[in-house]
Design brief:
With 292 residues, the protein is of the alpha/beta class. The protein has a single domain (19-290), classed as TIM Barrel (Alpha-Beta Barrel). It has helices spanning 4-13, 45-58, 77-85, 108-124, 144-163, 182-190, 202-207, 212-219, 247-256, 276-290, and strands at residues 29-34, 62-66, 90-97, 128-132, 137-138, 141-142, 167-171, 197-201, 223-228, 230-232, 235-237, 260-264. Strands 1-2-3-4-7-8-9-12 form an 8-stranded parallel barrel, surrounded by 4 helices. It has a two-stranded antiparallel ribbon with strand order 5-6. Strand 10 (230-232) and strand 11 (235-237) form a beta hairpin.
Length: 292
């Protein structure tokens, strides 16, 4: 078990990905897939397993999924964990979308939800909990008081996960990178690096006109993964068919010798689920651009 001092020192030097649950060799990249490209029935565990087998067949190493897709398995975790393991995929993490209106510091339901998902996810083999939602940026300004509460809430959630052997990540949407990216910079600067990692949704960040390679270069030791998505004229498209040229990010990752996960995320506001028809070309694009 790494001590807090040694963990932070290693992260600062770039020798470790800041992950609570797994340490990679320097420069090791892993490729995963978010399951929201598929329509999954949360009441039918076999529908998730079918998707996971497809993800494996396409050539991904791991997966991330919404807690809704696995919460019914929390009470029968041993058998369900074995069935997940048979897919051959690494369970990168279980995702909680917290919505736009919550107080992560004082909301008892939110605290209970994070704990429940962390406990259940760990039993199923998940390596980390990911939360997203509730930006404190509005009308081009960051609400300083809300930001302080958000930082405290993320640290608290991260502490619970760390105590129970899990990593904890914050996932951005576009809003956090608005207003010059002040909210994201403050979240990285104010959260405890031992407790809170970041899963950067590069597609959302690009939509907010962020310089993603530059942000990565400044904060590489805090980032454990990227969501890779693409869009054109404001509409989500298959990765590699839109406006975002990921070669600059790939170059920055290579220069930093960064270790972590590249996760394909295919998601349409229309609710249309394209599944393999979108994720297979996304996998090829990642291989072509990032070399993995």
């Amino acid at each position: 078990m790494l001590s807090r001092r040694n963990f932070i020192a290693a992260s600062a030097s770039g020798l470790l990905a800041a992950s609570a649950s797994r340490v990679f060799a320097k420069g090791t990249l892993h490729v995963g897939c978010q399951t929201n490209a598929w329509a999954i029935n949360p009441t039918d565990f076999s529908s998730l397993l079918t998707v996971l087998n497809t993800i494996n067949q396409i050539g991904f190493e791991g997966f991330e999924t919404s807690f809704h897709n696995v919460e019914q398995q929390f009470g029968d975790a041993a058998d369900s964990r074995a069935r997940i393991a048979k897919t051959g995929l690494q369970f990168f993490g279980v995702h909680i979308f917290l919505g736009d209106h919550y107080d992560p510091q004082t909301s008892i339901p939110t605290q209970k939800l994070v704990a429940q998902v962390a406990d259940g996810g760990k039993k199923l083999g998940a390596e980390r909990v990911i939360v997203s939602g509730a930006s404190v940026t509005a009308n081009g300004k960051v609400d300083a008081d809300a930001l302080r509460r958000k930082v405290a809430g993320l640290n608290s959630a991260g502490a619970y996960c760390r105590k129970n052997g899990l990593g904890f990540c914050y996932h951005n949407h576009s809003a956090e990178f608005m207003a010059g990216g002040e909210e994201m910079s403050q979240l990285v600067g104010q959260t405890d690096p031992y407790l809170v990692d970041f899963l950067i949704d590069a597609g959302h960040a690009y939509q907010a006109h962020a310089d993603v390679p530059a942000f990565f270069t400044r904060h590489a030791s805090r980032i454990v993964a990227f969501h890779l998505r693409d869009s054109k004229n404001g509409q989500e498209v298959v990765l590699g068919q839109g406006e975002f040229d990921y070669r600059a990010l790939a170059k920055a990752i290579g220069a930093a010798g960064w270790s972590g996960w590249l996760l394909s995320e295919e998601e349409r506001l229309s609710g249309v689920k394209l599944g393999e028809s979108a994720t297979r070309p996304a996998r090829e694009y990642i291989r072509r651009v990032f070399g993995v």
